[in-house]
Amino acid sequence: MEIILEPDISAEEYMDFREGAGWAKIKPERVKALLKNTAFLVRAKADGKTVGIARSLFDFGYTAYIADVIVKPEFQGKGIGRLMIEYLLSKIKENSAADDFLMINLLAAPGKSGFYEKFGFEKRTEETGWGMCIKLNGK
Ligand SMILES: CC(C)(COP(=O)(O)OP(=O)(O)OC[C@H]1O[C@@H](n2cnc3c(N)ncnc32)[C@H](O)[C@@H]1OP(=O)(O)O)[C@@H](O)C(=O)NCCC(=O)NCCS
Question: How many other C-beta atoms are found inside a 10 Å radius of the C-beta of residue 127?
Fold first, then answer.
């Protein structure tokens, strides 16, 4: 199976993947805005069909956020998530100097922290400072 990465995600794909993952719904007009304002988009295709999406926000300074990493269930466990994370990490690094301090953040869904640990992400603790978030009007 050949996997091709493309630097784009359509609004329809984004909503379809979110729905498939059972994540909170985002209004179509907000989807267009969030895709437009994302630094790096990636979709993975197999036989012309989109089988994975991921994206990263980046301030082109020192901090980035990886979000919405989703592989279609029947294509999970085939290295597609890895390809997309490696792509996003390389785009962030490409847009930074080799000696720049970078802090790349994400929220791991339940049971997924082991996936991100493969790339060097570490769980934060009280000692290193918890990651925190607030959700408004959603689950
Ligand atoms: C999490 C997800 C993106 C992983 O994608 P994937 O294509 O199945 O992962 P890969 O096949 O590329 O796995 C890469 C490596 O991570 C490991 N891995 C994958 N999922 C893992 C998990 N949940 N826990 C621990 N390790 C995991 C694989 O074993 C593989 O290890 P290896 O390279 O040493 O062989 C995918 O399971 C998914 O889309 N889940 C549903 C949506 C979701 O929860 N997204 C994460 C939001 S934070």
Answer: 6
Cβ burial, residue 2 (10 Å; 0-12/13-18/19+): exposed
What is the DSSP secondary structure assignment for residue 60, as one 8-state letter?
S
- Mean pLDDT (the chain) is 97
Phi-psi region of 114 (alpha: psi -120 to 50; beta: other; left: phi over 0): alpha
Domains defined along the chain, listed by start: 3-107 (3.40.630.30)
pLDDT of residue 137: 87
Q: Give pTM, 2 decimals.
A: 0.97
Q: Name all residues whose Cβ lies below 6 A of ligand 1.
A: 21, 69-71, 76-82, 108-109, 111-112, 114-115, 118
Q: pLDDT tens digits, residue range 48-83? A: 999 999 999 999 999 999 999 999 999 999 999 999
Q: Whose C-alpha lies nearest to ligand 1, atom 10?
A: 79
CA nearest ligand 1 atom 5, residue? 81
